[in-house]
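Quick log. Single chain, no ligands specified.
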Amino acid sequence: MNPDPKPSQPHTYTETVELKTVIKNKSSQNLLDFLSRRFHYLTPAQWRERILDGRVTVNERAASEGQPLRAGDVVRYWTTPWAEPEVRRDYRVVYEDSTIFVVSKPAPLPVHAIGAYFQNTLLSILRKDIPEAEAYQLVHRLDAETSGLLLLVKDKSLVYPFQKMWSRDGLSPSPLAGEGGVRGAGDFVRKSYRAIVFGRFASTQKRFEGPIGSDRESAVRMKLKVDREKGKPSVTEFELLETKGNFSLVEARILTGRTHQIRVHLEHLGHPIVGDKLYSGSDETFLHFYEKGWDEWLQQKVILPRMALHACRLEFTHVKTGEKMVFEDPMTEDLMAFWNGLSAV
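-> predicted structure:
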């Protein structure tokens, strides 16, 4: 397989588009809460306006913002035309057997539909290139601007066993032993990343325990922070690999799987990731990018148009065979070019 190594052209929607979502589980949310939390590209006020305009329906009927949602409800939204942002399409298949599918994802490329991305996603591209990939399921996710190793399974029934193994804290024994013929004893997952960060990383090795919770003081609703009172336990092990000038190359191994964990921990330690628009500056940095896109002002702030974070190593127990699987993926050419171009002084 030889995927196109060039960025895709924007996928342009020239007519009104209907987007449909089926509520899968019992929910205590009303319509406005659901739309605001699920689709971050519009504010609650913007969603309220669209509901009042009749552009949102529930079960084919006009909806109100406070309407409660139940499992099985069908939410439809009609949106105006837009062009999906460009993405990279040069994914690489690292390994495949009858059960699992390991791919190296480029950046920027969302793994699934989110925000303004519907066709320009890894899953959509895979399903066009490989018809049988229609049934493939993600075991975990990477941010759109994070490159590297990603695991999918070919049988939907294996998503839960893998995710149970991957959701534990990385320190306690596996909860899977003896479950339905799935491997249990000795199960483990290790996910390692490499990041180029601002500043000279102080320690050669560092274990950081920083509970992560919502940053309620931020104007950006999805932003998180270290919150030692209300946050969920989060542990990352860092190792300094090299320092150049006022930049460091570090390896991070996550022992818990919190959203944005490496990014939040590095920001808290005073070493935000180069290119990270959400965690390497004030809210102004991210809001500027959201409203105006990439420009010279942003380049002065974060330097790179993508985040300098790469999922470089993936180790896990195969849920069918019990075999220890180990995959490695070198940092991408663009990140290495930036690192190699830095002055050692």
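The longest strand covers residues 189-198.
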